[in-house]
Design brief:
- The chain has helices spanning 20-26, 32-44, 59-64, 76-87, 91-94, 129-142, 158-161, 225-234; strands spanning 5-6, 48-51, 69-73, 97-101, 113-118, 143-154, 169-175, 182-192, 197-205, 214-221, 237-243, 257-264.
- It has two domains: 5-11 and 157-221, no CATH class; 31-155 and 223-264, Rossmann fold.
- The N and C termini lie far apart (48 Å).
- The protein has a seven-stranded mixed beta sheet, sandwiched between helices.
- The longest helix has 14 residues, at 129-142.
- By secondary structure, it is of the alpha/beta class.
- 34% of the residues are buried.
- The structure holds S-adenosylmethionine.
């Protein structure tokens, strides 16, 4: 792995979001959360603020359901892909979807929303306590007094966090939309137990040309459930629900995503 071209940036996750088409391909089967967020959007009546809108996977569904949505995203390639997708919609739908570039910590719009959402692990890209606090301040700034804040993050899996960093976990072949090549895909996992940050190195091995192989890191802050509840509490939120899936199941050892709906305290 050491010989491969490794793209490292300040937070270690940007490379994962540098190709919106690859992101859409990789997560094309992830649909179960879209209904959850769309139902919340319909119940709120809108408008909705989505923090970390990505390629618009959730925002576009909300816009199509007839609800106005503002999506904020710092990664230009993700935003470009979202704009490309929105551009294919009828004008009435397009007019309901506003996309803005920026990091959620610094966002200060002059309007409030009955619903703020951060779907699919966006909060796991807030790595320090200061960043997390700025994230919650952004939500407080934009929420209407009786508004709801909904987001999901992975449930830390102790067995997974204890994985040997040099061990290769092989996946299958992955056709990359950038060049159509079928790369041999593997992952390596490492965990910093003090910062509570896991790094997944996604290794794409070119079948014939080693120089075209590459790795992309994905770093994610881990949130243990009681810690998440404390963070929400001490940042001015009351938890309406904290479940182990998008249908309301309790959190258990089998949980993949913790799903939180909170209000202002
Ligand atoms: C796993 S994607 C989820 C995207 C979208 N919400 C979805 O459900 O498909 C995480 C997104 O969070 C974005 N992100 C990372 N750090 C961010 C920050 N500080 N502010 C806003 N978005 C951020 C990433 O660029 C990426 O698009």
């Amino acid at each position: 792995m050491a010989k491969r071209k490794t793209i490292r940036r300040s937070t270690g996750s940007e490379a994962h979001y540098e190709d919106g088409r690859y992101y859409d391909q990789a997560y094309r089967r992830r649909r179960h959360d879209v209904r959850f967020y769309t139902d919340l959007a319909l119940a709120s009546g809108g408008p909705v603020l989505e923090l970390g809108v990505g390629t618009g996977r959730v925002a576009l569904a909300i816009g199509r359901a007839g609800i106005e949505v503002v999506g904020v995203e710092p990664m230009a390639p993700m935003l470009a892909r979202a704009r490309e997708r929105v551009g294919k919609f009828p004008r009435a739908t397009r007019n309901r979807i506003e996309l803005r570039k920026g990091a959620l910590e610094r966002l200060r719009l002059r309007r409030t929303f009955p619903l703020v959402i951060a779907p699919f692990n966006v909060w796991m890209h807030l790595y320090t306590r200061e960043q997390i606090e700025r994230g919650f301040a952004t939500v407080r700034h934009h929420l209407e007094p009786r508004g709801r804040f909904a987001f999901d993050v992975l449930l830390p899996d102790p067995a997974s966090l204890a994985r040997e960093p040099t061990k290769r976990y092989r996946g299958g072949e992955v056709p990359h939309p950038r060049d159509g090549v079928r790369y041999r895909y593997s992952e390596y996992f490492s965990y910093d137990p003090v910062a509570q940050i896991e790094t997944v190195m996604m290794d794409f091995e070119h079948p014939d040309d080693e120089s075209r192989s590459f790795c992309t890191p994905l770093t994610q802050r881990q949130f243990f459930p009681a810690e998440l509840e404390a963070l929400l509490h001490y940042n001015g939120f009351e938890i309406e629900s904290h479940t182990g899936d998008f249908k309301g199941a309790p959190i258990s050892a089998a949980t993949e995503s913790q799903v939180v709906v909170a209000t202002l305290r």
